[in-house]
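Quick one, tokens below:
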């Protein structure tokens, strides 16, 4: 059985990809990595992974075509998604290439079990606990997205609580930037049923501004697959945060800690890739845990790291607004 890590990237997120690969090499070096191509802009990516024997590239058009077609079928069932995106100048499905991450489940994918991580992530500790959890569960995550379901589903839809029990929404929804699972998890029959259920009126629960994330949550929950969230099930004394929106982490001795506990991974969620590109070009861009990123980005070429003023603090982005009425029904607010 082959375990590995997937990420999704192109040249646009090159600096973040290098930092991620270096962090994996440092903290999870026994695991092979497969970079899933976001699109054809891959010149810098190909050059980078050519000298990394543990890293491969997935750019098989046939695999992507299957999941792009599925995603297109899904969003064709929505009452107004395609029309809404068209008014915004988007032809077809918004960020369709983000759905290439679904290839991690494909029967032709290289890893039997895997952790998927967005390119704007750093691995800061062993991922053994996540893979060990796959011994007893088919789908594992470690995040706190359940605290903000407004970025997963349309909370104004009256169908949401008809389809999913509140207790599942309270504990099992997840950010698609980090999840662990197994290839072949979803059969073709299950995917056909998903499309049929959406076409029968359930599509209105999907969230248009994060289509890949919303659909992946819907597929998993609707298929009856139990999602095991370490952020829920780990004892409090072992649990750590993982988001750049947490301002209390400590960076010392080149390790990031959450109240004395080593952080497993750090997700720079919500930060534009342009910030990282500008920073690496020498611009004094300030964002949370900048030094952590720079350490891993220039791990093997410290002479190229830009000389910048020391960051004075870790600014904390504002928390997102939620639809309080539905959250109250879910028992969260």
């Amino acid at each position: 059985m082959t375990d590995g890590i997937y990420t999704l990237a192109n040249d646009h997120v090159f600096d973040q990809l290098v930092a991620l690969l270096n962090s994996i090499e440092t903290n999870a070096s026994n695991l092979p990595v497969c970079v899933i191509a976001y699109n054809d802009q891959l010149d810098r990516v190909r050059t980078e992974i050519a000298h990394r024997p543990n890293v491969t590239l997935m750019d098989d058009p046939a695999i992507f075509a299957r999941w792009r077609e599925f995603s297109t079928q899904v969003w064709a069932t929505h009452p107004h998604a395609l029309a809404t995106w068209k008014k915004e100048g988007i032809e077809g499905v918004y960020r369709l290439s983000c759905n290439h991450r679904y290839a991690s489940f494909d029967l032709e994918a290289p890893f039997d079990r895997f952790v998927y991580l967005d390119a704007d992530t750093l691995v800061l500790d062993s991922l053994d606990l996540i893979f060990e959890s796959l011994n007893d569960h088919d789908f594992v995550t470690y995040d706190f997205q359940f605290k903000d379901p407004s970025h997963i589903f349309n909370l104004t839809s009256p169908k949401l609580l008809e389809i999913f029990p509140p207790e599942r929404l309270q504990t099992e929804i997840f950010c698609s930037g980090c999840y662990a699972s197994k290839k072949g998890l979803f059969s073709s029959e299950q995917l056909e049923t998903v499309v049929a259920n959406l076409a029968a009126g359930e599509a209105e629960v999907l969230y248009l501004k994060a289509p890949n994330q919303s659909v992946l949550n819907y597929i998993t929950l609707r298929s009856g697959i139990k999602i095991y969230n370490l952020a829920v099930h780990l004892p409090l004394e072992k649990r750590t945060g993982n988001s750049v929106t947490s301002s209390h982490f400590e960076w010392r001795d080149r390790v990031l800690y959450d109240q004395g506990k080593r952080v497993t991974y750090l997700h720079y969620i919500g930060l534009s890739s342009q910030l990282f590109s500008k920073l690496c070009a020498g611009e004094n861009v300030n964002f949370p845990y900048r030094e952590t990123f720079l350490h891993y980005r220039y791990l093997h070429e410290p002479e190229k790291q830009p000389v910048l003023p020391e960051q004075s603090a870790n600014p904390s982005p504002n928390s997102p607004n939620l639809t309080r009425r539905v959250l109250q029904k879910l028992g969260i607010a």
